[in-house]
Amino acid sequence: QVQLVESGGGLVQAGGSLRLSCAASGRTFSRLYAMGWFRQAPGKEREFVAAINWSGGTTYFGDSVKGRFTISRDNAKNTVYLQMNSLKPEDTAVYYCALRLNEYGSRWEVEYDYWGQGTQVTVSS
Questions:
Q1: Rounded distance, CA 125 to CA 80, Å?
Q2: DSSP per residue over 12-55, as a string?
Q3: Angle CA(56)–CA(11)–CA(53) in degrees, nearest 5?
Q4: How many C-beta atoms surround the C-beta of residue 74 within 10 A?
Q5: Distance between CA atoms of 123 and 66, rounded to whole angstroms?
């Protein structure tokens, strides 16, 4: 089994920054895996935010966050990070970390095998 634990969410003013972390534990150690971040705002479907492949050399971003968010990972710590800059009120959502048992990242949530519980990010105007 794999466990994902997100942290770093909170309340921030528009224009501010937050860094989310997601620590993975369990069976991940035996497989190469990609990581992704998704978000879900109230009344909306879950949306792709960012993904990163196993090596960290390839990243993907949703159109709404390109140029503002970055994703990185530390495989020694089994942790992925989402640095969010220039935050907007429309970034307010629950952010979910996801793990894909494949070395390549994906924009599609159905391709992820494990999910965290989510962390709330609220951006005030």
A1: 28
A2: EETT--EEEEEEEEEGGGGS--EEEEEEE-TTS--EEEEEE-TT
A3: 10
A4: 12
A5: 17
Give the pair of three-digit tokens for residue 15: 């224009």
The CA distance from 97 to 34, in Å, is: 11
- C-alpha to C-alpha distance for 83 and 73, rounded to whole angstroms: 11
Has residue 16 got a pLDDT over 90?
yes
- Chain length of the chain: 125
CB atoms within 10 A of CB 30: 8
Give the tens place of pLDDT for each residue, 22-55: 999 987 666 799 999 999 999 999 999 999 999 9
> Alpha carbon 48 to chain centroid distance?
9
Averaged over 4-29, what is the pLDDT? 93
Number of H helices and E strands in the chain, helices first, is 0, 11
% pLDDT > 70, the chain: 98
